[in-house]
Amino acid sequence: MEEYRALQQSLFGVTVPEDASVLNVTRTWARHPALMKAQRPYQQHLVSETTLPHRDHELAILRIGWHCQSEYEFGQHTVFGKQAGLTDAEIKRVTEGPDAAGWTPFESTLLRAVDELYHDAFISDATWATLAERYDVPQLMDFIVLVGRYWTVSVVLNSLGVQLEEGKPGFPP
What we know:
Shape: globular
Structural class: mainly alpha
Number of helices: 9
Number of strands: 0
Mean pLDDT: 95
Radius of gyration: 17 Å
């Protein structure tokens, strides 16, 4: 933990409290300080400067985490999704996809867009048109980048075998 605190101080000028818990994903990034530093502004934009509504943001991350079968990512964003107002039933429904009963038409489109990006690396014209009825260009761009970023994070977590923290949720039953 002392090494991690020193790294945070040297890279970012951040003092990590003695009693702070450090997530396994953060410990993993810390194993490659140059990469940790390089990816931080990108991640900060997507977390705190995004133009997307919080609920939409979490639905998209949960869906790409499900597609990538990243239990760590899905579990972390189960917690964040609940903070954004998602219910347990909605989080479970993310695993069923955009055609599951109970989504609003826009939520269904949002999940479909994630599916299209995952399967085709492209959002279809029809899906784009529906997203563009609600999202402006910066939001559309943030959405695409968000899905791509969390695909990358999911692949890293899966490939490096990052484990869930004790007591954190994983995939829904």
